[in-house]
Amino acid sequence: MVKKGKVKKEERKPIIEVRKIKKTYLLGETKVHALRGVSLNVYPGELIIILGPSGSGKSTLLHQMGALDIPTEGKVLVDGLDITQMDSWNLSMLRRKKMGFIFQSFNLIPTLDAVENVHIPLLPTNVSEVAAHRRAMHLLKEVGIEDRAHHKPNQLSGGERQRVSIARALINDPEIIFADEPTGNLDSKTGEKVLEIIRKLNEEEGKTFVIVTHDASLVEFADRVFIIRDGLIEEENLGGKNGHAYKSESVELNKRKRKK
Question: Would you say residue 80 lies in a domain?
Fold first, then answer.
């Protein structure tokens, strides 16, 4: 159970506003209601955790918030702009200018080396190849794998691949970074290193993070925690950054694993 903490009403303007969104998919003749009326706000500089089991709708919600998909009903506003009214070109421009993405499966291009994977999002822009390469190398240094810059994904460990994907997410200097199970394919020790990078980006550079996960131990890094189940937000609570903690058997299990 989440240890209760009063969530204060923010006076700042939200960077993301989710207003009563629903998302329905058709599987053959069957309607799947992945989201069933979700509302929440994210404020600049926050680290938000959306916590829920598999099939709860958390990844679907991230896709709507990150302009990767459009809800069936409701609105999503990013910096006051209603993305549900944008065409695919403007959605692409919005993602390029404001957003970065970290995926559980890394989504690296196997034929490119690490530095090429990092700077590939800059190819459609006016940034020169030399400048793009220089920035990519700088980011690989920041995440601690500059020496692996010219290795392809199959020559990298899981943790190294996730660091490449973090560097790629930062290449356009985004305001918001979305992470879908960023430690899901990593062992606990490597996962802690990745979370430390995320924590520093949030606390020292002010990046806004929206992280979806089933792992309750991650909430110790969060400003706020949203519990999602069956396509609905069940609870909103303060996270570990506000002196609160998520108490569950899964957290205690994760702690015991880390000690081994």
Answer: no
Length, in residues, of the chain? 260
- What residues in the chain have per-residue pLDDT under 50? 1-6, 246-260
Bridge pairing between strands 47-51 and 30-42: unpaired
The pair phi, psi for residue 190, each rounded to 5°, is -65, -40
* 59 occurs within a structural domain: yes
| Residue 27, in any domain of the structure | no
Tell me which amino acid residue 117 is: N
Look up residue 145 and give its DSSP letter.
Answer: -
pLDDT on residue 75: 97
Is residue 62 classed exposed, middle or buried when 0-12, 13-18 and 19+ CB atoms within 10 A define those classes?
A: buried
Residue type, 20: K
Q: For the whole model, what pTM was predicted?
A: 0.86
Classify residue 19: in a domain, yes or no. Answer: no
User: Domain span at residue 136?
Assistant: 44-68+87-259
What single letter denotes the amino acid at residue 39?
S
Which CATH number covers residue 53? 3.40.50.300
pLDDT digits (tens, 9 = 90+) for 128-155: 889 999 999 999 999 999 999 999 999 9
Strands of the sheet with 208-213, listed across from one edge: 99-103, 176-180, 208-213, 47-51, 224-229, 232-238
Provide the number of structural domains found in the chain: 1
Identify the helix (H) or strand (E) that includes residue 116: helix 114-119
* Phi/psi-derived region of residue 189, left when phi > 0, alpha when psi is between -120 and 50, beta in every other case: alpha
